[in-house]
Amino acid sequence: MDFKNIVSKIDSLPPLNDTAHLVRELYNDGSGEVDIKRLISLVESDALLTANILKMINSPLYGFSNMISSVSQAVTLFGTQIVSGLVVKYSIESAVIANLRSYGVSNSKFNDMCHLQSSLLYKWYSKVNLKKAQVLAPLALIMESGKLVISQEVARTSSIKEYLKNFREATSVIEYENSVLGTTSYYVSGLLFEHWKLDTLYVNILKGLDYEQESSVGLEEYLDVLDVVRSVINVKEIFTDKSISDGAEIVKMMNLDVKIFLQVVQKMRETYEEGML
Fold this sequence. Notes:
Hypothetical protein af1432, about 0% strand
């Protein structure tokens, strides 16, 4: 199990499905130029994709009191970028089928975690910079995709129990991945996005998240925001006292209002814990 095998695996992956490809083409001229009617039509043309999106946004994670029954409503509530992120997310999960046992979580819990990360980012950072929150929220939704590839590689080498045992004993997800693979799942996510020719900005952010890269110069704010989110919500901890404290420390380092951040986190934590009862 090593980095070269992971790169080889990514290079052999088929293209994303037609719906994802067509949706991403809508963004060629920038998110502000997206044909909303065309986006809705493309998503609705894929019945399974539509069902998955509506099922997720109606989950307790988002806390809507009324049922969201159409893609049009979803776009109105979440915006075109979040919906496009959902399209890419489900397309990636179709292309990279993996069991997340090596990370000690079910696929369902992993999916919930990804949505919580995106939701936290948007609810918090939209109060700081709405435009940048709209750019980053879809990335937060799919930034953990590299763990799918790593899980496939762990399963292929028949070392799930050993990987999981050592993972549970490790204090840091990132440090553990790096010690075993010589890379992190976020960098692997960047390679995935690069392979599928997804947003160059996303590729550069993901590759720079754990390693300094020339291409990530000027992206420090984006990197810090994602670092806050993955500190609070990750495969080891979700809204624990420690993870919230870790996230708040980064917010403080960014010279942002920690009180506002903690208010958002506490409200989300309460909703999350109620859903677990």
